[in-house]
Design brief:
The chain has about 120 residues and is mainly alpha-helical. It has helices at about 15-25, 40-45, 50-60, 80-105, 110-120, and strands spanning about 65-70, 75. The protein contains 5 helices and 2 strands; from the N terminus they run H-H-H-E-E-H-H.
Length: about 120
């Protein structure tokens, strides 16, 4: 499983791992009941601490994206697609709200913001 970590992003490593696994699950790159790498294996592959990968997996379990089967490992959970969609929409709304507030503070027009969104969406 390919996960790319940036030490300079300002986002905690466990959060980067969690978000990338979540994206792989939502895009069906990782499928329901698929076995994930062990905490130790993932830590070794990513050259990060076991605590970091443990935290990422614990968060994914709490959010319902993966499940832990004792003595067997971590597996992709059955995802409620509607709920996952709503969560993603809320995240998009928060980010857009922040961007719009920045635009308003800097007197950037709605049309300019729409133009930026169109360009970014097409990439």
């Amino acid at each position: 499983m390919e996960i790319i970590i940036s030490n300079s992003s300002g986002i905690p490593i466990y959060e980067q791992i969690k978000e990338q696994i979540k994206i792989k699950i939502l895009s069906n790159e990782l499928r329901e009941n698929e076995l994930l790498p062990s905490i130790r294996t993932l830590a070794k592959d990513l050259t990060c601490s076991v605590i970091t990968t443990k935290n990422a997996y614990e968060e994914l379990v709490k959010e319902g994206y993966i499940k832990n089967i004792p003595s067997k490992g971590f597996y992709v959970a059955k995802i409620n697609r509607d709920l996952a969609f709503e969560e993603q929409m809320c995240e998009i709304e928060k980010l857009l709200d922040k961007a719009i507030n920045i635009a308003k503070i800097n007197n950037i027009s709605k049309e300019k913001v729409k133009e930026i969104v169109d360009i970014l969406y097409e990439e």
